[in-house]
Every structure is written in structure tokens, then in C-alpha cells.
Amino acid sequence: MSNDSQPEHERIRRQRNLVLGLLLGGFAVLVFFISIAKMG
Amino acid sequence: MTQSAVLEVPTDWRDFYALTKPRVMSLVIFTGLCGLIAAPDRIHPVLAFTAILCIAVGAGGAAALNQWWEADLDAGMKRTSARPLPSGRMHRTSARDFGVALSFGSVLLMGVAIGWLTAAILAISILYYAVVYTIWLKPRTPQNIVIGGGAGAFPPLIGWVAATGEITLMPVVLFAIIFFWTPPHFWALALFVKSEYAKVGIPMMPVVAGERSTRRQILAYAVLLLPLSAMPWMIGGTGAIYGVSALGLSLVFLAFSARVGLRTPLPEGDTMKPEKQLFAWSIIYLFALFAALVADRFFMV
After folding, report:
1. Is A30 close to B53, i.e. CB distance below 8 A?
2. How confident is the model over A1-40, as pLDDT tens digits?
3. How many separate domains does chain A show?
């Protein structure tokens, strides 16, 4: 798995994970606000 | 590239973003938002944001499925050969799974947050684009863009139904405007990339029926669009701001279309300038028309 250890691959994976994390976090926040809006 | 092939580098998140066709999505978001704002009823801003998000994500999912299915065709055309799949930066299965996840996710969220009628229309629009247009019509008939154009006509209808919870005449007219706008918009593009479509065997109108017939049909649709674009005003759904804007914009659209429609034969080495101008104006036209719809809602005369 020498490819995985290359810095460029690591950078791309890290960025992808970061974007995915942000999207999931954003989705959780959105669901929270939808719940509040639906209760109002 | 085979399914089991190993990519030289992992797929960048930007490639997943590119798979959603962001430029097309901007028009989808805009028309969906206009439909939502122009509707007579108001919904909570968070729910309005969610509805537009679902429309955008659903459109992105359909675009990803379109590129998954057409990866081989895209590789054969200069305009599309740099996309993530034909350039080998992404596995086809990744594109398919991404498209399916976005499609299901958007419909589910729309259903839970907004309502299942809106979600059903969103689901139909995704299936319409990914299955009816991409898989069924596009490779089979030169009328592909006429019928398939319906997929792009859904966003204002979805936006309107998200706000009101019902399908009335106005959102159907908005649907019809985009439906009849699509053929001249797309055929103008097809005229100047005709050779590319011919190369990959897609039966676009200029390839099958010839340039002359395509030009006449562009003009015919532009003529139809003139009264149709003014219909929201005529049925009392909007005021004079929209009505006058629609007539003015459609007359310019008609003028550009007439230049293309009555143009034959072409001189040797022609740069297709009128066709490119019509294509550019068609995009401005739709943005301006829906902007007028929203402006009219706030400043109704």
C-alpha cells in the first residue's frame, strides 16, 4: 500500500474527510432547525 | 477503465462536486427559488431553505446518474471529456452510488421536512432526467430534448408546491415556459457542437433532421414562447412588471431565434456567431424572466 502513504494521497483523503464531516455536521444542524420550525 | 481498476490518486471531493453539474444546478436553484418566492403562500425560512436544498441535491443526484450512464459518450466529446469519469479520476460505481445517495436523500428529506406531494414531484423529476431522458430518449430519438426538457422544467413547480402544498395553474404554466424554452436553448448549442454529437452517435436534431429543419423548429418554439411567457400575466397570476418584462425579453429571444432560424445556407468556415449568441441569450432570458416574476411579486402593479 505504498500509494496510501504518499503525501498527495493523504492530502486528498484528508480534504475529502473534512468536507464529508462538514456536510454531516451541517446536515445535523439542519435537521435540528427543521425540527424547531416544524414544532413552531 | 474497468470497475476493478485502481485509481492513480484518490478521487478529490471537487470531482464529486463537479459530478453534480454546478452550473446547471445554479439555474435549477434559481428557478426553484423563484417558484417558491412567487407563490402566494409563505413557509418558514428554514423550510424554504430545505426545499431549495432538496431541489439542488436532487438535481445533483440526477446529474451524477446522467454522467455515470454516459461516461463512454462523454469520453468521445471534447466538451465533456474532462469530466471526472471519462478522465479516469473516479470509478463509475462511485458516481452511481453518489447519484443514488443524493437522489434518495433529497426525496426523503423533502418528504419529511416539506411534504410528500413535493417529494413525489422531486422524485418524478429525478427519474425523468436520469431514466426517461438519459437512458431512454437521448440515444433513441431526435425529440429527446423536447420531451426530456421536462426534467429541467420541474424546479419552479416544486418550489411553488413546497410553498402552497398544491398544484395550481400558475406553476404548471411556469413548467410549460421552461419546457418550451429548452428546445431552442439546447438546439442552438447542438448546432455548433453538431459534429461532436454525430461522432458519439447521439441523434440530436441537427444530426438527424439536418440544420435547416432544426433552425425552423428553433424559430417555431421561440414564436410559441412569446404568448406562453406572457400567460402568467394574462391569467392574472402576475402584474404588469412581469408581463411587460416577459414580452420584451421574449421579443428579443424571438429576434435572436429569427436570425438563427432564417439563416441558410451557411458560408464556408462560419463561426456560428448567431447560434452562440442565441445560446447565451437563452440563459440570460430565463434568469431575467424568473427575476421579473419575483420582482413582480414584491412590487405588483
Report:
1. yes
2. 445 558 888 999 999 999 999 999 999 999 999 999 999 7
3. 1
Whether B3 is in a domain gets the answer: no
Closest CA to B212 of B266, B169, B283: B266
For chain A, say whether B12 makes contact (Cβ under 8 Å): yes
Domain extent, residue B215, equals 168-301
Shortest Cα distance from B22 to chain A (angstroms)?
17
Average predicted confidence (pLDDT) for chain B:
91
Are B86 and B206 part of one and the same domain?
no
Cα B176 from chain centre: 13
B240 lies in the same domain as B265: yes
Q: What is the ipTM of this complex?
A: 0.86
Regions of chain B with pLDDT less than 70: 1-6, 300-301
Would you tell me how many other CB atoms lie within 10 Å of the CB of residue B18? 20
Domain of residue A28: give its range.
2-39
User: Over the stretch B214-272, which tens digit does the pLDDT of each residue have?
Assistant: 999 999 999 999 999 999 999 999 999 999 999 999 999 999 999 999 987 777 778 88
How many helical (H) and strand (E) elements, i.e. helices and strands, does chain A have?
A: 1, 0
Nearest neighbour of A37 by CB, restricted to B10, B11, B44: B44
The CATH number of whichever domain residue B157 belongs to comes to 1.10.357.140
- Please tell me the total number of residues recorded for chain A in this structure: 40
Q: Which residue of A has its CA nearest to B106?
A: A27
User: Closest partner residue to A12 among B12, B46, B113, by Cβ?
Assistant: B12
- Do B50 and A20 make contact, defined as CB atoms within 8 angstroms? no
Which residues 100-139 of B are in CB contact (within 8 Å) with A?
112-113
- CA torsion sign for B165, B168, B174, B175 is positive
Number of folded domains that form chain B? 2
Q: Around Cβ B117, how many Cβ atoms within 10 Å?
A: 17
How many C-beta atoms surround the C-beta of residue A9 within 10 A?
Answer: 17
